Amino acid sequence: MGITGLLPFLEQATRNCNISEFRGATVAVDSYCWLHKGATACADILARGEDTDVYVNFCMKYVKMLQKFDIKVILVFDGNHLPAKALTEKRRRETRKNAKVRAAELLRLGKKDEAWNFLRQSVDITPLMAFNLIKECRRNNIDCIVAPYESDSQLAYLNLKGIADVIITEDSDLLVFGCSKVFFKMDINGNGRLVDKEKIAVCMKMKPDNYSFDKFRYMCILSGCDYLDSIHGVGLKKALKFFSMTAETDPLKFLDKVPRYLNLKNQVVNEEYKENFMVADATFRHQIVYDPLARKLTYLTDPAVSGTRPEYCRNAGKFLDENIAFQVAVGNLNPYSYEKYDDWSPSGNWSSSLHSIWSSNYVKKISRRAQKEIDKMENLKLESIQAIKQNKLETEKKIVDEVQAFKFESQLDIYYSKSKCNQLVYSKKEERSEEENMNLEVIKDEPHNIEKQESTLYKENSCEEEFVKDKSPILNKKFINPFLKKKLSKFNSVEIDEKVIVRSKYFHSKSEEICYEQEKIKEDVKILYEKNNDTVSLPTKRKYSFEEKEYKVDENTAGSDLLIDSSCNAIDSKSFATLSQVKTTNFVSI
């Protein structure tokens, strides 16, 4: 039963655990596995055809153990046989028949121990035995469902649809159907082996990019299953070796390569095997099951969606009448002969608190672990929302504080600017008063300087806005370095006289130098004339022209005071004349 050697092959995807890990969850149970174990305890009674409830009590012990861990139990029973398993069922019937004959012979010989082993092999679980367990489950408010065909596909459907979280079975075929978590070899204490579908890629030694569940299913079918015998000499290891050597995913293409890749001499994959392979694959994927929530028959997965050809689904089962399918599912009819066992109806017999799959308002029971995760996520959401709100409030408060601080600083800047302006004006007044005392005579002689100083003083006593506008652009900034501001405030403003000619010492021509000296002499003569002085000091080693006549000042006359005599048109140290008779505009340096 199942795929030979599959559980040892999946050792890396398997771990020991206790069913209590799924406290509060929903589990679906392959009931025929428990019935087979319970029937072996009363195999002799069953072989004699006597009635007994030993197997029922055996199964109920497991059910109560699961309920003790707050686990909701759904018992799933086998239905009719699939056409695909006709040969398999025929072999099993012959095996049971032969075992029963052999047990009778050993009992006549007095070999009870050997006879007991064959008696256990001869036990056949009948639909009536399953019905006895169903009746006991109804009395204990435990959900039961009879599959239209195999229980494996029905269990897989409950798991894939999220109705059941874990599957409890002894049949490795459940993994090929695509169940996510399968619990094997569970004892009365709840200990067993859990296989996780997500870790199958590790067992196949494939990278996640190269692995697909379809490859795993193809490998199992190629190694031999209940729906198709394997190619001679091909098991799980060789099947895995083949799929590790090819990237082809179409069975009709890669099956031709199997003998060549695996070095199987005298082995040929014919068209019949290819078709049977496709039929077996479609049976695993599209077997007909019963939907207890919608109360109708359906496919495990829709073949139209996956693109499976209809002729490949010939062994996946047939759709029955809705009423017959429902009566079979609740256990009122024999799944083989449709013989009536009971008239039980789930409508009105289930409390909503029981989370029954037959309830019209079914709501899946959430496990404690899942509820903890949900509560944890909700708490995280609430905490994150509160944190966001708190950050928002803090940000708004910070912005308000910054705005108020900015307004306060702006107000302080106004008073600060006024005080600085007044201090600067007062300091300049004091400095000017000292300068006025020291240069009183110069100021009297230069009335235009007095006017200039008065205008400057008037400007310094102007309003605050003009002072702020005229100061350095660096000081106009609202947020500046206070130390930089103090340093710049030490310096007084620089006033430039437009009448003063700034002349470079190095960058000028000869003509520019002569013009400059001429202007200088004119200015000196004009100033001396205005002051009514009697002498004019001229630079030495220069020629001068007075009324278009050239004169030279040499070393003999250097340093002496020269007087200009306009009557003799000469410059010497012996002639005298008054400056009022001199035309200074005609006295230039040449």
From TrEMBL:
- Give the protein's biological function: 5'->3' double-stranded DNA exonuclease which may also possess a cryptic 3'->5' double-stranded DNA exonuclease activity. Functions in DNA mismatch repair.
According to the record, the segments passing through the membrane are: none
Major localization listed first in the record, in broad terms: nucleus
Q: Its Enzyme Commission number?
A: 3.1.-.-
Cofactor(s) needed, names only, are: Mg(2+)
Q: What protein name does the entry list?
A: Exonuclease 1
- Record domain XPG N-terminal: where: 1-99
InterPro entries for the chain: 5-3_exonuclease_C_sf, EXO1_H3TH, HhH2, PIN-like_dom_sf, PIN-like_EXO1, XPG-I_dom, XPG/Rad2, XPG_CS
Q: Which family does it belong to?
A: Belongs to the XPG/RAD2 endonuclease family. EXO1 subfamily.
Question: What does the note accompanying the cofactor annotation read?
Answer: Binds 2 magnesium ions per subunit. They probably participate in the reaction catalyzed by the enzyme. May bind an additional third magnesium ion after substrate binding.
Tell me which residues make up the XPG-I domain.
Answer: 138-206
Q: What class of enzyme is it?
A: hydrolase
Q: What is the lineage of its organism?
A: Eukaryota, Metazoa, Ecdysozoa, Arthropoda, Hexapoda
UniProt keyword terms in alphabetical order: DNA damage, DNA excision, DNA repair, DNA-binding, Endonuclease, Excision nuclease, Exonuclease, Hydrolase, Magnesium, Metal-binding, Nuclease, Nucleus, Phosphoprotein
Compartments, record wording: Nucleus
The answer on whether this UniProt entry bears the keyword Hydrolase reads yes
List the molecular function annotations (GO) for this entry: 5'-3' DNA exonuclease activity; 5'-flap endonuclease activity; DNA binding; metal ion binding
Species of origin: Henosepilachna vigintioctopunctata
Q: Name one GO cellular component term.
A: nucleus
Task: Tell me which Gene Ontology terms the entry assigns under biological process.
Answer: DNA recombination; mismatch repair
